[in-house]
Amino acid sequence: MTKVGSQVDKSVCERYSGISENEVRQRRTSMTEKTVLAVNCAKCPRPVCNSPAWQEGPDNCPSKVLPDVIKKATKKCLSDELHDFAVKASKQEGAGYMKLPHAPKGPSPIKSRVEEIMEFARRMGYKKLGVAYCSGVQFEASLLVPILENRGFEVISVACKCGSVPKEELGIEDWEKVLPGRFEAMCHPVAQAEILNSYKTDLNIMLCLCVGHDSLFLKHSQAPCTVLAAKDRVFGHAPLMALYQSRSYHRRVLAKESMPDAAKDAERQIFENR
User: Fold this and answer.
1) 19 pLDDT exceeds 90?
2) Can you give the pLDDT at residue 168?
3) Which of 52, 60, 124, 153 has a CA positioned 20 to 30 A from the CA of residue 253?
4) If DSSP codes are grouped into helix, strand and coil, which group holds residue 143?
5) Where are the strands (E) in 103-201, listed by range?
6) What is the pTM of this model?
């Protein structure tokens, strides 16, 4: 664990309005401990959790910081409620790779996500699948549903604009719409979830729901859910591209802050001044 130096600048004490050097030191130590012990696997200097050396992780490794939480979670996975699901999910993961004759040193991926979703659903004995999709990917949904049906599943698909509830009912102003001056239905993930709930689907597949709308759908879906594709309007629904381009053409994601409504507000002013 990082140690705090013994020397404390008196100007620091002055900024703390008369707090003693010892108190400042204690506060610094407390802050350092919280920072060091906060689990942050993405910053791990030596990922060993998938190796025999898993006990050699850093001080803030979840296995060291929260062993009781992991033990409790493992107990849940082994419970009658989740064991079968966890086992079949793990089997599906393993079945997605194989050592190819011309590349025997490591496993090669051999299945698309569409294939894996259908295979996992079959492993689980699911017969009725729900598809909750964004109306902007109507074409993609029209390709997906027949594929699922061809594999023998009954499919219930629901578009996000179901119900045609005007955005005004949410309190959205006209300039905030995608296309101001026109009727625009709100995305309705709660209705999508409740419709699929009414059909008692076994598994729901999410296809390009908006950020936030996907959260609402997950919150209200009674069936377990999986994601076929996440919406990304800039990168063709491949959101990891924003990370790959973050050091070049998409540097703006590295900015400390953003102005989420700035472009829309500028659009409004342009049209108001016409």
Assistant:
1) no
2) 97
3) 60
4) helix
5) 103-109, 128-133, 154-159
6) 0.82
Dihedral sign from CA coordinates of 61, 62, 66, 67? negative
Both tokens assigned to 122: 């079959």
Q: Which residues in the chain are classed under CATH 3.40.50.2300?
A: 125-272
Kindly tell me if the per-residue pLDDT of 55 is higher than 90.
no
Contact status, residue 222 vs residue 194, Cβ threshold 8 Å: no
Distance of CA 94 to the CA centre of its chain: 22
**Residue 64, C-beta contacts closer than 8 angstroms, at least 6 positions apart:** 57
Average pLDDT, the chain: 89
DSSP 35-101: HHHS--GGG-SS--TTSTTGGG--TT-HHHH-HHHHHHHHHHHTSTTTHHHHHHHHHHHHTTEEEET
Q: 169 to each of 30, 166, 185, 187, 242, how far by Cα in Å?
A: 48, 6, 10, 12, 33
Residue with tokens 């859910």: 225
Domain 125-272 -> CATH class: alpha beta
Stretch 174-186: mean pLDDT? 95
Question: Is 111:95 a contact under the CB 8 Å cutoff?
Answer: yes
